[in-house]
Amino acid sequence: MDSASGGGAAENLNSITEGPSSATAPPPTVSQQGAAESSSSPAPPSRYESQKRRDWNTFLQYLKNHKPPLTLARCSGAHVIEFLKYLDQFGKTKVHITGCPYFGHPNPPAPCSCPLKQAWGSLDALIGRLRAAYEENGGRPESNPFGARAVRIYLREVREGQAKARGIPYEKKKRKRPTITTTAVGVNVSVASAQAIDGGGGSAGVAGGDDSGGGTTANVGTSTAAAAAATSTSV
Fold first, then answer.
1. What does the alpha-carbon distance between residue 108 and residue 95 come to, in Å, rounded to a whole number?
2. What is the pLDDT of residues 125-158, one digit of tens each?
3. pTM of this prediction?
4. Rounded distance, CA 156 to CA 173, Å?
5. Which end of the chain is more exposed for a tag (fewer CB within 10 A), N or C?
């Protein structure tokens, strides 16, 4: 009986001590719950980051399946070029061979049996992502195989070859530098208005200094001193 009563007392004590705290703390509002969830959950990766992760995993899987298997430390620019050639089998870009009648034709009128390859733009973007992923995963920039000179030469040859075969030149768009144009705003003050400011007197003096009379305008931006002299003369 004592133990049972003691247990009940303990439960009552817990209910008493927890009662005021639950009563004084109101339940969180919907906005507070949303803010807490947004702060606790990390932001989803961007499309570029997701693609870069997939490309990196694909390259690592390629090294694993390579015969003989390759490690990332032993990977060189030549292995990167092999990887790019391996990807050609999954390409969707028609690259006409030299003997094809549509060689150099940008819009062939009929299909042909030329192979499908990876477009140069896709390979160039892929190398950029893999180059960044290599350094993000602990690789040193000076030993980055994706930035090797052989890889750059291969990409340039692919670009030039596909440009000739497809009849589509790959030219980098030159960035237009913003041109700053300044327009000179000339303020024209008529001699007649100058006379009105002076009180209407001395019009003959002003007319004597200007052959065209009161209707002729003078550019203040180019001859400010002359206008001031004319005004003092009229006064």
1. 11
2. 999 999 999 999 999 999 999 999 999 999 999 9
3. 0.56
4. 16
5. N
